[in-house]
Amino acid sequence: MKKNGGKNGRTKARCTPLANARGQVALFIIIGVVLVSVILIFFLVIQPKSLSGKSANLGFEGCVEDAVSQGIFELEKTMGFINPEFTYAYQGQGIPYLCYSNEYLEPCTVQKPFLKQHFEGELTLFVEDNINSCYSNSIANLKSQGYDVKSGNVDFEIYFELNSVRVSINAPTTVGAGTFEKFNVQVNSPIYEMLMLATSVIQSETKFGDGNTDSLMLLHQDYIVLKLKQSEGTTIYIIRHKTFIDEITFASRSLVYPPGHYIA
Asked: How far, in whole angstroms, is CA 170 from its chain's centroid?
C-alpha cells in the first residue's frame, strides 16, 4: 500500500492568503512603532524649545523700561537737548533758552517749537544703543538656554502720554515655533504734563514777558513751578513734580526793560 506525499514522506507547505495577511499586519505594526519612536525622539530630544504660557516674551521689556527711565532722567537736566547750545549760565549749569530776545522791550522768539516732539526725538536717539543692547542680550540669553532663535532688526518709536511714556517696538523674532514681532513698554513718568506746563509758560512769555506760575500751580497741584528773575533780564523756570523726582529747568528772556527804566 503506497503512502501519500513526496519522496521523504513530507507534505509541501502552502503560502495561504491568511498567512500573507498576517505578515503584512506584522510589518505595518513594526513600521508604526518605528514612526512613533522617531516622532517622540524629535519632539522630546531634537525639537528646539519654544516659549509658551507666561514666559511668552523675549524678556527684554524690563531692560528697555530701565533704559528709557534713565534716559528721561538725564535729558530732563538739559530740557531734552542731548547737546544744548544756547544756554544761560546758572550755578555751574547751562540752562537752555526756550524763548529769547536780545532787544529791550521786545517779546521773545520761541527757540524750540513743538517741545514734546523735540524731547521724544532726542530721547529716541539717546536710548537707541541701549535698547538694541537689551534686545541682543535677550537673544543671546535665550540661545544659551537652548532655544532656536532667529532675530531681526529693531525699530522703535517713543510716545509721551499722560502719566506715562510708551515705547512701541517692532522686532520680528522667531523662538522655536513661536513668532514675536511687536512689543509695548510703558514707563511711568510725568514728563508729558511737565512739557505742557513749560509750553504754557513760554506762550505767556511771548505775550506778556512773564509766566504766571501761581495760576499754574493752582490748576496743577501735583507740581511746583518756580520763577527766578535774573539781573540782566533772563528768567529761569523750574517745574518739579511733588511725588516723582522729575524736574525740568529752562530759561527765557522777553520784554526786558532797559536799565533805569521802571514800570509806572
From this structure: 9
